[in-house]
């Protein structure tokens, strides 16, 4: 009698773990399918760079030097993780060049006072704009432009409203949308 | 009194000891075809200024002062030269893409304009490396022109 009980319990446990395993497998398959469809549409690593770039931009808009330092370092990291292998040879060459340049500016931003951070952000923005021209982005982006900063400087934003990263609170809304990138 | 003597003796031994640790010398006889001066048409006065004020740390060839052979000065210089060459090496100029050149030229202008370069610790000893405001302007104008022509 005792043995029977143990057997039943063991069988039940096995049954539970099998169904659980099957469920997991199903879930995994589901995830993989979703990933596949995403991969076709966009480059996840380029998206990570963009996210880090926008976070950095927001810190500069908020005049937050120490946060911009941190975010400069994390942008440098996502730039290092970029993978050019799925692009054409000509694109690879240009992307590598962009990444090396952008990394240097991100590194400087992670170590500099805010005036310097903004100078580097200007060149960094050009790099990122050129990168998006090759990788394209999943979201609609706005290229914005401030004619006052350093003889005219551009940057990218996810929002149409202008929030100026070069002047922050001093001239928050200075600038215009000069291009929409779909 | 005795302890002071012992400490001094230990310091002396340490000082003599570190003299035997060699550092890497930044010297080369090869003029690289990628050198900034070779590929760009640099006016002579600016050439001279760049050579004296920049090339010691931003090229593969340093004109070492005599005291460089004494430690720990040699270490200090070695680190400086390593950092300097990492940021910018004039000897390897032409190997950079236009994007990289533009970045470097921008930095050169900013650093000289703000007086961050040449370093104070460097011009303190190398009096001739200090740039007058006229020389500074000449260099900046030249570099800005070069940047626009990229």
Structural key phrases:
A: 182 residues; mainly alpha; three-stranded antiparallel β-sheet; 3 strands; globular; B: 150 residues; 7 helices; 0% strand; elongated
Report on the structure:
In chain A, α2 (44-61) packs antiparallel against α3. Chain A has 182 residues and is mostly helical. Chain A is 64% helix and 9% strand. Chain A is globular. The model of chain A is unreliable at 18-40 (pLDDT under 50). Chain A has a three-stranded antiparallel sheet with strand order 2-1-3. Chain A has two domains: 1-41; 42-181, no CATH class. By secondary structure, chain B is mainly α. Chain B has one domain. Chain B is built from seven helices and no strands. Chain B has helices spanning 2-18, 36-39, 44-53, 73-87, 98-113, 120-123, 133-148. In chain B, α5 packs antiparallel against α7 (133-148). At the A-B interface, α4 and α5 of A face α5 of B.
Short structural description:
Chain A has 182 residues and is mainly α. Chain A contains five helices and three strands, in the order H-H-H-H-H-E-E-E. Chain A has two domains: 1-41; 42-181, no CATH class.
Helix content range of chain B: 40-55%
Number of domains of chain A: 2
From the alpha carbons, calculate the radius of gyration of chain B and give it in angstroms.
Answer: 19 Å
Average pLDDT taken over every residue of chain B: 88
Number of E-state strands of chain A: 3
Major sheet size, sense and barrel closure of chain A: 3 strands, antiparallel
Q: What percentage of the residues of chain A does DSSP assign to strands (E)?
A: 5-15%
Which structural category do the helix and sheet elements of chain B fall into?
A: mainly alpha
The assembly state of the depicted protein chains is heterodimer
Residue stretches of chain A low in confidence (pLDDT < 50, at least 5 long) are 18-40
Spell the H/E element sequence of chain A.
HHHHHEEE
What proportion of the residues of chain A is helical, as a percent range?
A: 55-70%
For the record, the count of structural domains of chain B works out to 1
